[in-house]
Backbone:
């Protein structure tokens, strides 16, 4: 029987007999592990340091919690199921998953092609930190066609040095979709026998349930596990998933940067994964109701929601049909007016919390232009229609009638 991921989140990869029969994986709050004998210690290190291949039936032994820990290993095994990935690496934050991955696959002189706008922290890392290590950058947007992307590469001084493609789709906060397989073609066009151009997709907005980038040609999927995976606004964590080979490389750098998640974070995320599907299903169902209400409200000018994409949207519609398994639970909208009206709305909410972050059980609202996207270049902000009248909602698991009641009464105050 091939059980669905949601049926395996309570048990997969955990053997109760190794933990006194405890039904749940305990928190292995320990820094180091005792070897049975010196020979075992030698064997474990030979495998961990890549001095020899692991024998087919050999279990990777526990050595030290920066290298491995049961709470992390079991969590990583469970995470692979949703994306059908071979392997996963868990980090102490989404940013450490992103920065470690980029540092592993980029060397001085290389060029990274990335979709813009990306998450603020990612944008800073790519546009400010990577160049200080001699790495060149080239931004593209959701609206660039394949021809335009190839032209940008041809016209770029270091276009021939393309080494990595980094996408975030749907774009935050507008829900503009980026065609993952189109960028795979671009990456392939720049790959050769000596040099493989890898592609990573930040799937935080839609994952791990509603979009599976590996199916569309991505080599790596990255998550801020702080968002839907953690889902309770109480933990910061990240993950990177992909083939055994690529994740093996990412894990080696993680070991030496020391940015793995600790056992307590691992345990919290395992607990979160048990309810991941019911939470996300409910959030998506609520978002549909919220988007419908907003779309019909006279004080709302425009709603940015995947469910509102129609065949008239052309390419966006085709990508949506190909790539999204749900319309998600992120809804942005333009209120009639500007910053003053948007702030009045935000200041009058009673149930929805005024906070950044997303994907949690409670509904959250924020003002992208002055909060999450305050640092984005003003020209790009305008191009992406991130204006003073935009409000971003992350829809939670509350009763949808209460969420809508809150939106309605806050709009009345405007
Ligand atoms: C939050 C977020 C990140 C960063 O994750 P942290 O866990 O805060 O480090 C990266 N990408 C996206 C899309 C995010 O929403």
Residues:
């Amino acid at each position: 029987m091939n059980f669905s991921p949601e049926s395996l989140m309570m048990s997969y990869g955990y053997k109760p007999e190794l933990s006194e029969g405890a039904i749940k994986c305990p928190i292995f709050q320990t820094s180091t592990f005792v070897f049975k004998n010196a020979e075992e210690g030698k064997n474990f290190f030979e495998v961990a340091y890549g001095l020899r291949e692991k024998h087919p039936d050999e279990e990777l032994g526990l050595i030290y919690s920066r290298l491995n820990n049961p709470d992390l290993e079991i969590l990583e095994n469970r995470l692979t199921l949703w994306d059908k990935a071979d392997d996963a690496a868990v980090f102490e934050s989404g940013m450490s998953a992103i920065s470690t991955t980029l540092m592993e696959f980029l060397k001085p002189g290389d060029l990274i092609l990335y979709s813009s706008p990306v998450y603020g922290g990612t944008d800073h890392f790519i546009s400010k930190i990577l160049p200080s290590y001699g790495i060149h950058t080239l931004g593209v947007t959701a609206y660039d066609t394949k021809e335009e992307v190839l032209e940008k590469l041809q016209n770029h001084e270091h276009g021939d040095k393309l080494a990595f493609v980094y996408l975030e789709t749907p774009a935050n906060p507008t829900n503009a979709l980026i065609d993952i397989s189109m960028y795979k073609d671009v990456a392939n066009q720049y790959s050769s026998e000596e040099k493989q151009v890898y592609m990573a997709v930040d799937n935080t907005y839609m994952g791990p349930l509603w979009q599976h980038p590996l199916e569309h040609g991505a080599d790596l999927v990255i998550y801020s596990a702080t968002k839907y995976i953690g889902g309770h606004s109480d933990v910061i964590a990240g993950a990177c998933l992909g083939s055994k080979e690529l994740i093996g490389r990412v894990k080696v750098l993680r070991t030496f940067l020391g940015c793995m998640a600790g056992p307590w974070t691992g345990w919290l995320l395992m607990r979160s994964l048990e309810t991941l599907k019911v939470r996300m299903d409910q959030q998506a169902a609520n978002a549909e109701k919220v988007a419908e209400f907003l779309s019909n409200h006279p004080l709302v000018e425009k709603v940015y929601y995947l469910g509102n994409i129609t065949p008239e949207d052309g390419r966006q519609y085709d990508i949506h049909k190909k790539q999204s398994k749900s319309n998600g639970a992120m809804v942005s909208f333009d209120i009639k007016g500007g910053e003053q009206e948007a702030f009045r709305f935000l200041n009058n909410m009673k149930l929805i919390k005024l906070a950044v972050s997303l994907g949690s059980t409670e509904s959250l609202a924020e003002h992208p232009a002055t909060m999450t996207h305050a640092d984005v270049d003003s020209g790009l902000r305008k191009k992406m229609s991130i204006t003073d009248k935009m409000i971003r909602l992350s829809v939670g698991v509350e009763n949808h009638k209460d969420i809508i009641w809150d939106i309605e009464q806050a709009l009345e105050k405007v």
